[in-house]
Amino acid sequence: MRLKQLFLICTLFGLTFTSCNKDDDDDGVTTVPERDRGEQAVEDDEALVAYLSTHFYNYEEFETPPENFDYRIRIDTIAGENSDKTPLIDSDKLVEKIVDDEDVEYSLYILKVREGGGRMPTFADSTLVGYKGELLNGNIFDQNMAAPVWFDLPGYITVNSNGRLARFGGVIPGFSESLTEFRAATNYTVNPDNTITWEDYGIGAVFVPSGLGYFSMGQSGIPAYSPLIFEINLYRALEADHDGDGIPSWMEDLDEDENLFNDDTDEDGYTNHSDPDDDGDGTPTREEIEILEDGTLVFPDSNNDGTPDYLDPDVFKG
Length: 318
Hints:
By secondary structure, this protein is an alpha+beta fold. The chain has two domains: 2-238, Chitinase A, domain 3, CATH 3.10.50.40; 241-318, no CATH class. Helices cover 14% and strands 28% of the residues. Strand 8 (156-159) and strand 9 (165-168) form a beta hairpin. The radius of gyration is 22 Å and the shape is globular. Residues 124-238 form the PPIase FKBP-type domain. Residues 259-318 are annotated as: Disordered. This is peptidylprolyl isomerase.
């Protein structure tokens, strides 16, 4: 019960978090003339490589944890008494992930200090994350390490306050692409003081070019075209079913491009993962699929035309 209460509180915090969330109705967003994405990608990568070459993290503490070590990543400049430290760019924990977004290839640098031992989230899932976000100059623009936040990674389509369809939730691509490289905790313990001790959770940091962040859309504390750094602890990863139709959202990515927002079978504006009646035939998707006792999904094809009933408007229940 205590854990459920904490998760509810964390969810409410997540609704107000703007540093990672996308929201079509965001206020206070500053737009500047947009630069060429390819050129900016090159500039950002140079800045990130320079940062990674001149900074290190507290790898020695992770290798030989001191008493009461909090397993937090701390990054500092290689200088003075730290001049002999191994730079991030040379760490065997740093991986480069190439992400194609809007026809531009970006280098996303992920520091995988500990992968974690639990479930690895998909691009369509919900995750409980402790995080700290900062700029390359060290300015912190948001953080919730002590009070983790639930993030709906892709977001969904619904009606906004003006009665129009809009996209809600979701996170910037760099944040989502990094979380899918870690695993959640294997277990947890609720302590007498109502805090939680997590076991074998994912620990890392991600270095994000602006094209996988906010690009030209300045946010509070984040100037336009800013590369970003996030320290992340991944505690939980839950398989999402945004529309409650019985089909996990990741399975509603019909073209398997990891973009849920270009899959809309009945073209009604509600993407399949946001639509409880995917083919628009009046019969809810949940009534056109079968869920076996062991959780296996079966997709009947009554007329044997190669299209499952839930995606076939010619098959419906009267």
